[in-house]
Amino acid sequence: MKLSEKDILKLDFLLDKMIDTDWLVTADDLHNSNFYSDKMSNKEMVDDFKYLLNVFDSTNSGTTNYEEDNTHVRPNERTIVFHRNGGFKEYFLTLKQKELDNTIEIKKETERQNLKDNIDKLKLEELNYKQTIRGLEEELKISNLLKNYWWLIASAIAVGVAIGEYLI
After folding, report:
1. At what angle do helices 5-21 and 87-148 cross, to 10 degrees?
2. pLDDT band for position 1 (50/70/90)?
3. What start-end ranges are recorded for coiled-coil regions in this protein (predicted)?
4. Which of 4, 7, 8 is nearest to 91 (CA)?
5. Does this model's pTM top 0.90?
6. Measured between alpha carbons, how far is 111 from 150 in angstroms, rounded to an integer?
7. Residue 59 is part of which domain span?
8. pLDDT, tens only, 153-163
9. N or C, which terminus of the chain has less Cβ within 10 Å?
10. Quick check: is 57 in a domain?
11. One domain, residues 77 and 28
12. Is 167 domain-assigned?
């Protein structure tokens, strides 16, 4: 539910009026307190008031009636507690804070996952580099063996050829 600052002021006004009078409030109370301009049609006022009643329903902070000629909200057992806890302004500030906390938590979790993915990618790259290094080390060992023992290898080949010639 996205409410404007003016909506919250209207809701808190209605809540205060219910607490002060311990009686029901209607769209006329908002009109008489200049929350609704004289330029607004009756239908616009009633529609806006019904929208506000939906908020009272969703917070269970008043008992609502949507009858066509008798649209109102009156106090219930939660009204006084809701009012003492800061009313609609505090309620929506708390909701907004929870939304911010959730958004921050989601961003943190996303960042954590991205970091884990990057770490996994770097570990895989490290493994590939280590395998490449091992392969190069093996090639280097073979080349060093050939370089250092070429004479032995050549001698063994020569002896092998000589034995082969002698046997034939």
Report:
1. 140
2. low
3. 105-139
4. 8
5. no
6. 57
7. 5-85
8. 889 999 999 99
9. C
10. yes
11. yes
12. no
